[in-house]
Amino acid sequence: MASPGPLMLSHAFGLAPVGHNNVVCMDDNQIAFPVGRHISITNAETRASTFLLPDHFDKVQRITALALAPNRKYLACAEVVSEEEPAQVSIFTLSTGKRTRMITPPVEINVFQWRSLAFSADGKVLVGLGDAPDYLLLWWQWDKGKLLGYARVGQPAFRVALSRPADVKQPSTCAVAGPKLIRFFKIGDAKAEGQVKSANASVGKRELLDFTDLCWLDDERLLACASSGEVCVFESQELRQVLHAVHPGSAPLRAIIPCARGFVVAGDRGLLSVHERTEDNAFVPLKVFTCHGAMSRIAGAAPPGGERKPEPITSLALSPSEDVLVCTSGECEVSLFPLKDMDILRADAAEDHFTPLCGGFHQGAVSGLDVCLRKPLLATCSAADRTVRVWEYNERVCVHARLFVEEPLSVAFHPSGYHLLVGFGDKLRFFHLLVDDFKLVAEFHLKSCKEVRFSNGGHLFAAAAGPNVVVFGTYTLEQVGALKGHAGPVRSLSFSTDDFAIVTSGVDGAVYEWAIDGLARVEDHVLKGCQYNAVLCAERGSAMAGALASGLLAPVASGAGAPAGGGGKGSGARAKARIVAGSNDGKLRELHAGQISRELDLGGKVTQLILTPPDRATRQQSLVVALGDGALLAYSWPLDDTPPASIHVHRGQVSRLRLSADGGTIFSCGEDGAVFLFAARQAEARDAVRRAGGERDDGGTGGELDTVLVSHSELTERLSSVKELEKHISDQQLQADFKLHQAHAEFARALKKAQDDATVRADEAAARYEALSRARDRAEREVRERERATEVAHMRAAEELEHLYERKLAAEAARYESLSQQKADLQSAFEERMLQMQQHHVAQLEAYKHEMDAARRDAERMHSDLRDDRERLKQSYEEELTQEDRDYEDEVQRMKRAHTSHLQAERDEALKLKGEAAIVRKKFEASRTDMQKLRNSLDDRNGEIRTLSGQLADADKMVMMLRKDMREREDTIADKERRMAELKSKNKELEKFKYVLDYKLRELKKELEPRDEALNRMRTTVTELDDELQRDFKHNVTLTQEVGDKQAKIDSLSRELKRERRLLAERERFISSFARDLHRLVTYTEPALWRDAIKDIYRTYAKSDSTTDSHSHTDADAAEHEIHRQREYMERAIDTLKGRVSRSEDKRTFDQKRKVGENQTLLHEVNALRVENKDLKGRVHSLNAQLELADQRTKPRVAGAPRMPPAGAGAASISRPRTGSAGGARAPIDHASTESLPAVGDGSTNRLSAATTSMRPSASVGQLARGSALAGSRERSKVAEMLAQLDENNREIGAQRNEIRRLRDQVSSLMSAAPSASSRARTPLPPSQPQP
Questions:
Q1: For 1001, phi and psi rounded to 5 degrees?
Q2: Shortest CA distance to 357 belongs to which of 655, 668, 49, 66?
Q3: Basic and acidic residues: which segments have biased composition (predicted)?
Q4: Measured on CA atoms in the order 847, 849, 850, 851, is the torsion positive or negative?
Q5: I want to staple 623 with a disulfide (CB 3.0 to 4.6 A). Which of 189, 585, 635, 1070 is the partner?
Q6: Cα 373 to the chain's mean position, in Å?
Q7: Residues 6 or more apart from 28 whose CB is under 8 A from it?
Q8: At residue 237, does pLDDT exceed 60?
Q9: Residue 267 to residue 248: CA distance in whole angstroms
Q10: Stretch among 43-47, 563-567, 658-662, 898-902 having the lowest mean pLDDT
């Protein structure tokens, strides 16, 4: 038979209670969170789920933390395998869903649980924070599995966060938070704990708070929230700001996350607030929202004493676009908050803007589950949160929920989907499932009802109450009967497919089949000592299966259980059912007619069983078994030896297992609070099952899928509310139309006004544009004129720079020659050092070889001594053992003979003397005691012999170890010798390569010389251009100052001109007035009137004339004062210029003296170099002679090897690598050229050029000169610099003298103009001749 198909996990309802770091946003829609043993990736819009299903999850007990890489391609998952094994971290590639790498701590580091994980900015480094007692911080290069370092925090810590610097190559800063703890670590390339740089946060005189979470706002700024309701802002590891009472009432904070606007913080009472960062890096709270949770939306959620308090928000995750904020609460609930709509949402504590994912999850172990046959509905109950939920599993959402005061223990769904049975601790309740609520219909007094089921047709339901099973009618709600016979509580019950029989199993080890007609027992199987947890029944090939509560299903011998009762009424009318039972001995048994026909070992506690319908194509069925460790096994049915398909999903025991009506979906729930959905079949098979089940399109069962129950009162209330809403809508429509009309009119008025304003602004802009255009044309003309002037100045400066660059190039060439000589000297020193190191290596190798030979001889001598000692000890031990055996045998024989004769004598004497029998018996006992002592002594000697034998074996082992050590040392010596031979051969080859490479190096240097010269020229050009730019800038500043001075003078003269013109106008008015009065006086005909008129003219003009004269004198004094001020200013300027000239002359004199001294120093250096060159030539000659003698004494060289040149070869021969320079052969020294140096300081340029010509080296083209040529080049460069500096000083002095001469001329002109100005000040000037 073919193996059963695998169980494909399709969806899950639930969230593993991890705490922090239990949810991440992969993109704007995908949310990843742990559920059961797996990680679910759920789409927030479609609610579709995918799962990370690696093979190792069956060994994982729980998931403790999640972390998403910054590129959102990798997900890190912290896992706990067992309490004894170290915790591990798995990294998944999200595009493939496969595990890329598994990371475990080293053996010497004990980490049994990870509290928090974090990735670096580039995603290559993963940081993990361990749990108590050490709270270790470890970081890996996870793609290579390499541990980069670790640090011990030493006190409780909960969260870790890594900074994300702008440059990913820079080391990141890791921050750790906990109670009274904020510590920073520099994550670098440290390999040990002592190398990690850590520092506590600096908080000044404040006390550290109990921090619960932290996050990095940028590379330097860290945010940390505390349980006291405060948020601390750290910058550069120092406390900069504290935000007090972030939430109302200083509610404790639990989670914080950065966003583009600032940060988001959440905490107790479901409070969440958004804070915005201002321009001065302060934070301003915007709004505070409240997450009431999915429990607040459940009917009956409010407790009797008041409102239900929201649970705290424990974790936050932000989508990449920051549109959606995902948060998890203490209720194991995932909620979505529309962060993009935050500005339009009302911050009202009564309003809940959070949307639970899939309608919310259970907050504890799920104790009951059942599925509807006619609708895609699923019912679950949980005793932990006291809720009953109804799910629409095709849409993956919770559609109904009800909170009860008592704990629900079990639930059953009617096939029609209209009714629910819920078992409680004291009663069993029957509910109608309405549109949005459960309506209680009836209650049945059954205590601790943990198992209740509807029949397949829905007309009956059975409930287990202790050892009894009570059967009720669904439509009459009356008891049909009770099934009594179990000796213990009933754990499972199942109706047959035709509802003619029911099978029950219990903790008493009994499995009973009951006929519905008459409620009589048909078949039974009883096995003492086992407990059955599940049962399954079907007609003609269906099965009953039981499972163990103790852990294993064990085989039962055939015939172990016998029928306990006879068949009931109607038992002969239907075929015998096959039964599969599991017992506490770890075997799964298939029973038929109460007899065992087959058994299988499952290896675990079985809690639930289901049987899938036959496949349409293959007619194959599968028996799905749920185990106590959360695993599901799928066996082929009928049972055979085919291995089952398995999948581990739940973290604890599976409490319920159900199958949909079409057989395409399997449902499971467990103690971990998760509900899993498995796709067991294809869609075509489901359609076939529906058609085979008799679904109709004419309003039969298919029409019931969209129907619900509604109470009459609720329907009436809804209709009245609909009418009120329609009336309200009509009123609102009228108000909206009126407001729209008003808005249109207001808009038309505003539009006309805006158009008028726009026309006016356009006219103004056009006028302004014309004015700006004219100004731009003027500015362009001025700019072009300035550009032409600047270009002319730059051309002139470029010519001067070119001459200057030529002089500097000559200086750089001389410097290059000196550096080349230094390089040659350094290379010679390096070669000598290399030869010394080779000789030292050979000597050290010989010493090591002698040391090893001595150690080997000592080891051989020790080995021979030990071998002799062993032989000697062995012989002595054998002799002592032989002697002891011989002595013991003689002693035994002697004592035996003595005791035998003595016994015979005693026997003879006993016949005569019966009274002495007791004495003889005592002597015999004493002799037997002595014999026992001798035997004990013999055993002790044998023990000593065994001990010595063991010591001898140890000595043999020591000898073998020493021999092995000797062999290893001999191998090491042989390897060293081979290595020495290889090094010698390589050394010879390297010498050959060195000679060739030296020649190539010389050639390359010759090729690189022009490039270096060009590069130096370019660098010099850049430097000189920078200097020229600095000089131009200074010159511009000077010109700007001069222009300002001239402008000030022009302004002063303009004011003086205006004053003189005003005085001239006043005098003209005075003269015209006098002429008018005089003309009027002439017109008088009476002489008597002349006297009075002449007096008036005198009083008017004579006094005013005196006043005018006083004004004239005042103006003349002012002009004279201005002349004196200008004179003093010019005198001060002249004194300043004289000081500058004197300082410049002193500087020039000092520079000239310094350069003369440097020239003399250079001459001394040249003479010293000549002497040194002569000595070096003598030494080279002697060394060449010694090398020739050495070559003659050694054997002839190999053909093709370079030979030593003769002693007098000179510059044309090739020098040896150890004594020659890298630049080729050195030119001979030209003494005549160096002796013809001219005297420095004569100021003759022609003599300098002749001297530089005579100082050129006489070597051939392409060769570098040493000695006097190098010194001559340095001397020439320095002399050229001195002459250039002298020329520049002369030019500066000439310019200063011209400036002084100009200033003197200006002062003299002003002095000469002063008397004329004073005279003109007394006499008014005509308007056509302005005063200068």
A1: -65, -40
A2: 49
A3: 858-877, 1106-1124
A4: positive
A5: 635
A6: 50
A7: 319, 320, 321, 323, 324
A8: yes
A9: 11
A10: 563-567
